[in-house]
Amino acid sequence: MRIACLGWGSLIWKSGVLPVEGEWHKDGPPVPIEFSRISDGGELATAICINADPVPALWAWLTVDDLATACELLKAREAIPAQRSDGIGSLIVTDRPAGALAKWAHDRHIDAVIWTALPPCCDKIESRTPSLEAALAYLDSLTGETREHAKDYICRVPAQIDTTYRRAIVESLGWTD
Length: 177
Fold this sequence. Notes:
alpha+beta, three-stranded antiparallel beta sheet, 10 strands, five-stranded mixed beta sheet
């Protein structure tokens, strides 16, 4: 089984235990992504955000051929607790793909696709998306190493993850690579 992983954040430059084979490809499917998850490290991380405009995700082949193992390795890389069942998304493609993601995978001879499916998070409340104003105020309030880490994150996310919040962050804070 050929398994691919979708990515749009730090997974691209820091795959950790996830066995990525080769480079990340830029022709991924459109996914509604936004800088909408205040993470433990203080950065405003990318997450699937249902109301966001879709942007092309990146994708990479994995060197494992077992979907359960691939999902466990992605959970380990993302530090998702074992008891949390909603942190990883997956799709197995058949000979008759249905939907845009299945067709995209089928066209690339991908048998299964996995991705991190953590929701937005604001004020330590999962599934709460910060408003654009709140996101900018949050980032602007950061100081020291936390601010540098948050800026580094924004700058390292691939340019094709061109979102409304990112454009506002660049305009307001000047955070560009």
